[in-house]
Design goal:
The protein is globular. Helix content is 59%, strand content 0%. The model has no long low-confidence stretch (mean pLDDT 91). It is an all-alpha fold and 154 residues long. Helix 1 runs antiparallel to helix 2, helix 1 packs parallel to helix 4 and helix 1 runs parallel beside helix 6. The protein has one domain.
Length: 154
Amino acid sequence: MHGPEHHFLVPAALITAYCNHRGEPGRKAPLLRQARARAGMVRGGFCGTHGTCGAAVGTGIFVSLITGSTPLKKQEWSLANQMTARSLMTIARHGGPRCCKRDSWLAILTATIFLEERFGITLPVQEAVQCEFSDINRECLREACPFHVGYPSG
């Protein structure tokens, strides 16, 4: 239900969709390996102890990998940090407590918007994501979650 595997699942989903969409299957495996290694450094519980959600960090990992960012690159470094910041703000606006599923979906949706705005790349997105985990998540926000079946606009 919760766990640091989501920190890798976010960049993995984005890398896979990105490479498939761009017709670059040869880039996928090396990018996924790098994403896995980087996401492995983001420990479970980061959201509550370090002031950043691993799902948001995952979007930054994604952008840093597709742009070739390093600590010494100007534009690429900026884009990766902007991506993380935007995802984190989206997640923070929905409040806590933790829900790795909600935060991962929010991060992925935010990244698809960022990709379109900054790179002109439109990834296909499933319009209506509905969570099937609320019954097993003790911390579920229920009707206050945008992916809950009873959400006001959903």
